[in-house]
Amino acid sequence: YEVGDLTNEIDSRVKGAVAGFCGKEEYEVGDLTNEIGRRVETRVLDFINSDQYEFGDVSREIENRRKQWIEGFLGKEAADNYQFGDLTKKSHFGFYWEG
Asked: Which of 2, 33, 65, 99 is paired with 18 by a 20 to 30 Å CA distance?
């Protein structure tokens, strides 16, 4: 054993794991950051169903999905006229008055 053997071994293993994660043979500085950025971008574009991102797209998609869910739960007319508390009222009424 020589001084630095353990450090060199750990360094080599971490670089190998990062290179594998990035789909590369050898690790280069910045590979992990670039790969994570690429994967996040891909997931965001899939989530917003678009080929490019503009600021606010994720918020708009969440709002659209929320509206669709409320429409499915309350019905179209109720969703169009939704006011804060409608879900609670429907849940409470359904729990106590169904079946």
From this structure: 2
pLDDT tens for the 99 residues of the chain, in order = 788 899 999 999 999 999 999 999 999 999 999 999 999 999 999 999 999 999 999 999 998 998 888 888 878 887 787 777 777 777 666 555 554
Residue pair 37/30 in contact (Cβ under 8 Å)? The answer is no
Q: Can you give 13-63 as a three-state secondary structure string?
A: HHHHHHHHHHCCCCCCCCHHHHHHHHHHHHHHHHHHCCCCCCCCHHHHHHH
The CA-atom distances, in angstroms, between 33 and each of 11, 27, 43, 84, 95 are: 17, 12, 16, 41, 49
Q: What is the pTM of this model?
A: 0.63
Instruction: Report the alpha-carbon distance of residue 15 to residue 35 in Å, rounded.
Output: 14
Calpha distance 66→87 (Å, rounded): 12
* C-alpha Rg value of the chain to the nearest Å: 25
